[in-house]
Amino acid sequence: MFKSILFLFLLFFFSESLFAKNSATLRAIDRTTGRSFELNAPINEEISFSKLLINVKYCYQNPINMEIENYAYINIQDSQTNQVIFSGWMFSSTPSLNSLEHPINDIWLLKCND
To answer: What is the pTM of this model?
Structure first.
């Protein structure tokens, strides 16, 4: 009984860190110029794009034997007003479901990276 509980605990502990990634690749569009950018956002490090501060808290990828899906928990803040304009999960397979649609910028998740 103890061995099975220990096994389940270790499986849960290592599976979370096994599928967690070190950075996220985001697509960002500047609507004023019409230009598209790929941003590499390290986990728990704030990056700046236009007048936005982006902080990716978690980025996970499903295991290979499942359909490839990347999902990330992201906080986006307006640097001028210090107001959080997005806080939540983004999914790479359905960018229209939960992306940032801002008057000046659009941002969505492309993938999670090692």
So the answer is: 0.77
